[in-house]
Predict the structure.
Amino acid sequence: MPGPVKIYGIPRSRAFRCLMAAEEARVEYELVPTDFTEGVKTAAFRAINPNAKIPALVDGDTVLFESLAINLYLLRKYGDLWPRTIEDEGRVFQWTLWTATEIEPAQMQWAYNTFVRPADQRDAALAAVGAEKLKAALGVLETCLAGRDYLLGAAYSVADLQVSCVLYTAWFNSFDLAPFPKVKAWLDRCLNRPAALRARNMREAA
Ligand SMILES: N[C@@H](CCC(=O)N[C@@H](CS)C(=O)NCC(=O)O)C(=O)O
């Protein structure tokens, strides 16, 4: 029997997303502490992820990088959240790629220039451009959540996990969600689930 799934990273990094997924999948896992300054540069870690970035995953002979791809793998292989139909699977892929391309770059542009970088390295104009792009994406989400509690319908799914684990950054760091009340209520639901709270406790206590 292979040992527990290994997630390389620290909770205060994108590895948080995979901790949320692993908790939702209820898979036995080990967090292998690897930080994004020195930890990612070691030869041992580069052999796992040649991008020298966290997170990475090792599950027996399977080695993966990219946080949202790791999540798809974990939820497909473990737990009972994976969609039952090809159509819903398509929607999960749609929301995953949408998150990576429409949310992530805008949110990071806002975050880097608002609180991540030291104050003297922040550019307020870049932060504002990122915030505007993020608002445009949140508007799409607000429209898609009309008349439904979750992205695929009445029940929480992998689509909700993928989008909410990334938007955690904006939600936790007080991005103004007042113009998007459905998104705000949905994020409150997704990020206060017992599994999400277990992952958040690791991150917020760190
Ligand atoms: N697209 C990648 C991005 C991974 C990433 O940028 N991770 C950061 C930490 S949150 C990192 O390891 N940075 C180290 C570096 O860029 O040198 C993913 O989602 O997994």
